[in-house]
Design a protein that fits this description.
By secondary structure, this protein is α/β, with parallel strands linked by helices. It contains 12 helices and 10 strands. The N terminus is likely disordered.
Length: 321
Amino acid sequence: MYVFFKKRSKNTTPTNGNYHNDYIRSLEELRSLFTKCFIRSLNKVRLSLKMNQAVRFLRFNLQSQREFLYMKRRYLKDFNFKENCQVLDVGCGPGDITRYGLLPLLPKSTKKLMGVDISSDMIDFAKQFHQDDDRISFERLDIGTSSIPSHLLQSFDHVLSFYCLHFVPDLRKAMENIHRMLKPKGDILVNLISHHYLFELYEELSKMEKWNSYVHDYKLRMSPFQDSGNFKQYFENTLRDVGFNITHCTEQRKVWPASCENSEGLLKAINYVNIPKHLEDEFVSDQCDVMRGADKVFINEHGEEEVYWKYTVLFANASKV
């Protein structure tokens, strides 16, 4: 069963099924938590007419923001952050969740909260708009690198990562690096996707002649466990092999209902397959047509189309041995 929505019939909004009550209260809290952040950033960005990746991601990536709220209610609110701690956020993106989600949860005595991301655009944006507290900083880092900078080794009491690690080609290397950056007895709290409908969508698009040259190698960016039934076991084994004691590890199947406007914006912001800018609108339009043909688009009670994204996410908490 996927969490909180069941499909009722073609082209009609699925009815509510069994779900986590904590998880469903997302949209209003999202507006409350992130509206100030987004408006403040956009007011500055309006000086430029360029809609870069970071701005798109910030505007349309409600799924990651909502998943963070779920993590906050289920895990972070009772997470034992140490006094005078140093915290690392792996895959911070444009820095909105790092600044407005994580920082308020940390003890006032926190010495450092660092956000890292592989994207220079994301880090530049985060530095410009979200590095407004002496405790927070952002730095470009490939978490799958073979050479972690020396100043980051054994530097952090806690490492957090939300919606990032499934993009790393060598997940074991990423966890080894995280282990090396933790202080003795430091701990991690992460979530990552093991299966997402987006890659099924790319499979269909790869069969279209006009998109094949762009999409044919999409599996290089896909979670290696997209079609695997034992990702949880593999991840637990990886954590133990690297040197972690596992406190908690669960896997859940979920559904994210999003407006077509939000879905189209997010598809452009993600752009895993590097579609040229002048073809973005046509590519997204064809993706939406594929989803309609696969019964992934429904009409809600207001007569508007919504896309129901299915994905499987894993949550894990572990400590360094």
